[in-house]
Amino acid sequence: MSKTIPQASKRSRAWIWLIVIGPILSLIGLITGFASAGSACRSVVVPKEGLVKSYGTLQGMGGKERTCESVMDTVAVPTWTFIVLGLVLFLTGILVRSATRKRAYIAGEHRPTKQGVNRRSILQGAVAFFATALAGAAPAYANGNVRYVSASGSDSNPGSVTAPWRTLAKVRSAMASGDLQRGSTVLFKRGDDFYGSIHMPSLIGSSGTLTIGAYGEGARPRLLGYKVSKAAWTQYSGNIWKLNIAANSGQYSGNTSEASTNVGFLKAAGMIHGRKRWAISELAADWEFFSDSTYVYVRLGVNPGAGVAISVQRDILRLASHTTVQDLYLGGTGAHGVTTGGKNVVIQRNEIEWIGGSALSGTTRYGNGVELYVGAARVMIRENIIRQTYDVALSAQGTGTAGWTDITWESNRLENCNMSLELWGKGGGTGFLRCRFINNTCIDAGYSWAALIRSDRDGKGTHLLTYSMEVPVDVEITGNSFLGARDNYTRNSGDRQIPAGIITHRNTIKLGAGKKIAYGVENPETSEQAAQWQARTGREQASVFAVSY
Asked: Are 343 and 378 in contact (CB under 8 A)?
């Protein structure tokens, strides 16, 4: 004869699941919180800000403090979601247990001596657990102010995911007005193109980080600096054509409001044309170009037509302090891809290519992937892909006393740039303090689009470039792979030796046969004589050299 358990008793079992699952969720949150940033950093659960700063000062931690902060920003919401939800479930279970026992006593029910747990209860508990986990893992931002930008949106929209903005101009105005400030997030739709640039003002707000990133599926959203020609070229004379590229001329699409007419290069049918001339009379071969304050002039046997991408002098992104930029494609400028002299900046997982070529001064041309100005501090540049720059993939340079502090370049892939890393500083002051270039892969320095058209080619196809080093230097270069170079591994001004404050060790360096290790007659050794160079200079201890590529 079976025994029937009253329905009220069945319902009373719910408190068991609440009391069991609650502590489990809180425990998961605690584990995540304690482990989130590592033993040397403050954690979400137990902040140790003083410890991490002291550790960074004593051990040369470089950008790790900022790394810890970034990691904690990522895990904070899931951590506290688990902890708080677990406590709520546990306390709810206690209250339910108390209430059901009281109702059972009043109704005269007697608790069975043994209770079973059916499959439905198990399933319900599992669903509740995983729903909580997924809710905790969903992205969230410091002040909840998230704006979306899509090529199919409108700047009159509110910037929601269902009614996004459209242009970079709208993003810039939102930063100026404070609609986007520290703690806010702006996300560009993957697979879409956006023309123009973002030069940030000082951000409004006293806490948090402004995040610029991507949403949706597909390729990185592309922020492009190109002016794209319409079929509006007119014949200047003979084989020379001209196009009005002044702001809002109506003769081009793309970056229509950009005032600069200082052209860096042209791109047509996927081909880069970078031979810039300094007068119309110098145009002698197809696709050579010259630009003045209004027009770009191109020599070609036929009308260049629509679709010629014209890069001009304008950094794609110029970042303020307290900014994170991630998961974007940046390209098509005659200037730099990204620049900043700010503090607490993260630049990660971006793709940067087709950079530079505009005139900097006189006939000197320039253009770097990511450039750090004097005053940059606590900057992390990691996991980016940087290709095809006129000058350098990664640079820290300038004149002034503020220097560069706690800069980390880590796990980037640098391909076909003229130089991989450039360092120079003037003006005294702190110079380079706790800077690290670690675990990067640098391939084919000196084989960029501009390598053979530069006027200053001598020894410039190199991985490590230093010059005008008139400030203190505290830089470690380790764990990197330097694979292939047109000219040499390193080129240094002055005595032609790597400055004493730059520590180079445990790298892999592979150069082609007969390639110089270091530029200048002071450094006669070729790739086959790496051991002699190491012994003479004391450089690259525990590094591996190979003759290949």
From this structure: yes
